[in-house]
Amino acid sequence: MVIKRLLPDGSPDPDSQLVVLNHDGVSATLKADGPVYLGGYFTSVDGVTGQNLLRLNTDGTVDAGCRPGFAVCSRLSGQLVER
After folding, report:
1. Which residues form the domain of 21?
2. Entry pTM
3. Contacts of residue 60, Cβ cutoff 8 Å, sequence gap at least 6
4. Looking at per-residue confidence, does 65 or 15 come out higher?
C-alpha cells in the first residue's frame, strides 16, 4: 500500500514523500502539529520495522524517535491521539 500526504486543497504535498507499507493500512490520524500516526496490519513502513503502529514526520519519513514500547499484535483499526 502506498500513502501520500495531501494539501488542504487535495493536491499532493510536494514536500512529502510517498510512504510504502508492506501490507494494509487501516487508519491514519493527523496530529495538530503535523505528524501522522499510521495504524493497520503491517510490519514495516519504508523498510522500517513497526508492528502495526508508526508515526510519520511531516515530510513522510518514519519518525525513528517515536517507537511504541509494545507491539500491536492484531490489526489496529482506530486510534486516539492526545492533542
Report:
1. 1-83
2. 0.69
3. 4, 5, 16, 17, 18, 19
4. 15
